[in-house]
Amino acid sequence: MSDLIADHVDMTFTMPSGEQVHALKDVSFTLKEGELLSVLGPSGCGKTTLLNLIAGFLRPTGGRIELNGAEIDGPGVERGMVFQQGALFEWLTVSENVDFGLRMKKSPKAINRQKVEEWLEIVGLQGFGDTPTYQLSGGMQQRVALARCLINDPDVILMDEPLGALDALTREKMQSLVLKIWKETGKTIMIITHSVEEALLLGERLFVMAPRPGRLHKEYNLPFAEMGLKQDLRDVKHDAQFGEVREEILSMIWNMEEEIMGKSA
Ligand SMILES: Nc1ncnc2c1ncn2[C@@H]1O[C@H](COP(=O)(O)OP(=O)(O)O)[C@@H](O)[C@H]1O
Ligand SMILES: [Mg+2]
Q: Which CATH number fits domain 1-76+190-218: 3.40.50.2300, 2.130.10.10, 3.30.70.260, 3.40.50.300?
């Protein structure tokens, strides 16, 4: 059982000036093993804070987060992270980036080499093992980041706007890759994105968060990730229901942003 449970999670940051920022208020949800969750919301609504709490980089000021029945109280190998582009070790080769976690665990070299080859093939980078990372395009770098995360066999994969810096075409290919990995590994995946379309495609569950204080505003259960496993993503985007939900969420977020601007004006 690797349910991820957020139970009345609260997070308040205290600034050096003494000012308090209520970044998350009363966030509760259960993510079951193998679920694919996307999280959407205007800038500053606490998406990254939520991810950092689950990663164990931060401790909540209220409530608790559990994985596999144990409270999360720090980072752990059962939670893998994929960040925005630029988080690789640029001075290392592709293989050296991918097997970094295994080397830290002092796993035998021959096994590492075999695993690296397997993962490079899954992410579409076979033959690139010896390439210096800085020579890769943005999309290829994110493929390395995925392989580097997956090789450690985490229960939960946490991604914070992993495709945000990619051009549209590369991004679409990477969205297909995320779906493929979800299907083939059966892992629990939580992905934060700024893009409504991406959230619809990469979430069988989708949370829309609202700001000030950051909180869960609305949840959707969506068929598009399943559809995207069988059809071209372009066709999924032309589905009538896809268009309807996209418009609904776009106006929801638009209204939140109007309200934020109203408050700060
Ligand atoms: N370390 C921190 N110290 C103080 N305030 C923070 C810190 N991290 C985030 N915040 C504040 O918490 C709120 C949520 O931030 P964040 O989680 O980064 O939002 P998002 O990822 O949705 O854009 C923002 O108001 C932000 O300024
Ligand atoms: Mg963020």
A: 3.40.50.300
